[in-house]
Specification:
Structural class: alpha/beta
CATH superfamily of the largest domain: P-loop containing nucleotide triphosphate hydrolases
Helix content: 25-40%
Number of strands: 13
Shape: globular
Strand content: 15-25%
CATH architecture of the largest domain: 3-Layer(aba) Sandwich
Length: 330
C-alpha cells in the first residue's frame, strides 16, 4: 500500500489546491460508495460486529478487533474473526492455521489474530461469516468491511487515528475518506479514537461535533514483557500504516533508534532487504526490531534474529462497549 498524499491530512478548513481540484472526483467516489451500500447483504444468524474506519489505510482496526475478542472470550463467548486477508493469495473461506499458513497465504493480520481466536479469511465476507457460523461461532468480529454491503452487522465500530482524524474531510482522491463523515457515522454504533492526550484533544476539537454516537478513547501501549529498552541500540523497521509512530514508541521506551526503515503497509520482506538490514545493524552495533504485525511476515529463519515490540489497546472506559454488547445479548 502506497503512502497517502500529504494534502489528505491538512486542516479541513484550509484545503490545499490539489484537494480543491480533486473535490469533484471525491463526490463521484462518495456517490459510488453510497450506491454500493444500497445493495442487499447477508443477514447473519449470530451477532456480527464490524470493526471498520472511514479513511483509506490503517487506523488501528486490528488492535481493536483483538481487544474486543479478548474481552468477549473472557466472558465465555465463542468468538470468531472474519477478515478479507489483505496481502494473502487464498480466497477462502479458510480457517487460518499458523501451522499450515504463512502471511503470503492469508495476510499478516489474520495470522496474528488466529493466535487468539478462530480466524477466517474470505474475499467474500458473507461466505466467511457463514463458515464461522457453521463452525459454532456465537459472535463474529469482522475486521474491516464497513463500506462492504455483503454482510449486515448488528453493530459497527468506527476506528480513527486521533492524530490524523478524518484528514481534510474529503473523499478519495481529494482526501482520505471512503465516504463522507456524516454518512459513515450515521451507520456507526460507536466511535473509538486511538492516540495520546494531545491528539485526542485535537481530534475532539475538530470532529467532536460530528460524532453523535458514544465515543471511546484509547491508546496503544507496549505490552510488559520484562524487556528493558532503556539504552538499547536498535535498528527498527516496519511496514505498517504509520511506521513513525512505531519508531516514536521505541524512543519513548528509552531505546536509541539508530535508524528507522519505513516500508509500505503489508510489504513483503525479501531476503535482500533483510540481509541489508542485518548487515547495517551489525555495523551499527544495533539490534533489529519490528512490530508484531511485521513479525508475522518474517520468514521463519529470521524470527529469532529480530525482536518484536508488542502493543495492546488500552481503552479508557469500556462502559459504552459493554452496554452495546448487552443489547446484543452478549
Amino acid at each position: 500500500m502506497t503512502r497517502a498524499p500529504r494534502f489528505w491530512f491538512t486542516p479541513p478548513d484550509r484545503p490545499l489546491l490539489a484537494a480543491r481540484l480533486l473535490k469533484p472526483l471525491g463526490w463521484l467516489y462518495a456517490a459510488g460508495t453510497a450506491r454500493r451500500l444500497r445493495q442487499p447483504g447477508y443477514a447473519p444468524r449470530v451477532p456480527v460486529i464490524c470493526v471498520g474506519n472511514l479513511v483509506a489505510g490503517g487506523a488501528g482496526k486490528t488492535p481493536v478487533t483483538l481487544a474486543l475478542a479478548q474481552r468477549m472470550l473472557s466472558r465465555g463467548h465463542a468468538v470468531h474473526i472474519v477478515s478479507r486477508g489483505y496481502g494473502g493469495h487464498l480466497t477462502g473461506p479458510v480457517q487460518v492455521s499458523e501451522a499450515r499458513h504463512s502471511a503470503a497465504d492469508v495476510g499478516d493480520e489474520p495470522l496474528l489474530l488466529s493466535a487468539f481466536a478462530p480466524t477466517w479469511v474470505a474475499k467474500d465476507r458473507a461466505a466467511g461469516v457463514q463458515a464461522a457460523e457453521a463452525a459454532g461461532a456465537q459472535v463474529i468480529l469482522m475486521d474491516d468491511g464497513f463500506q462492504n454491503p455483503s454482510v449486515k452487522p448488528a453493530l459497527a465500530l468506527v476506528v480513527v487515528d486521533a492524530a490524523k482524524g478524518f484528514g481534510n474531510g474529503r473523499c478519495i482522491p481529494a482526501g482520505p475518506l471512503r465516504e463522507p463523515v456524516a454518512e459513515g457515522l450515521a451507520r456507526a454504533g460507536l466511535v473509538i479514537s486511538i492516540g495520546g492526550a494531545d491528539a485526542q484533544r485535537c481530534f475532539a476539537n475538530l470532529w467532536g461535533a460530528a460524532i453523535t454516537v458514544p465515543h471511546l478513547t484509547a491508546t496503544l501501549q507496549p505490552l510488559q514483557t520484562g524487556m528493558d529498552w532503556h539504552g538499547q541500540r536498535v535498528l527498527a523497521f516496519a511496514g505498517i500504516a504509520d511506521p513513525e509512530r512505531f519508531f516514536t514508541t521505541l524512543r519513548d521506551l528509552g531505546a536509541e533508534v539508530v535508524r528507522g526503515e519505513a516500508l509500505a503497509d503489508h510489504a513483503p520482506f525479501s531476503e535482500t532487504l533483510l540481509k541489508r538490514l542485518e548487515a547495517e545493524s551489525r555495523a551499527a552495533g544495533a539490534q533489529l526490531v519490528t512490530t508484531e504485525k511485521d513479525a508475522a511476515r518474517l520468514p521463519m529463519a529470521w524470527r529469532a534474529k529480530v525482536l518484536t515490540l508488542v502493543v495492546r489497546l488500552q481503552v479508557d472506559d469500556w462502559t459504552a462497549v459493554d452496554t452495546a454488547l448487552v443489547m446484543l445479548g452478549l
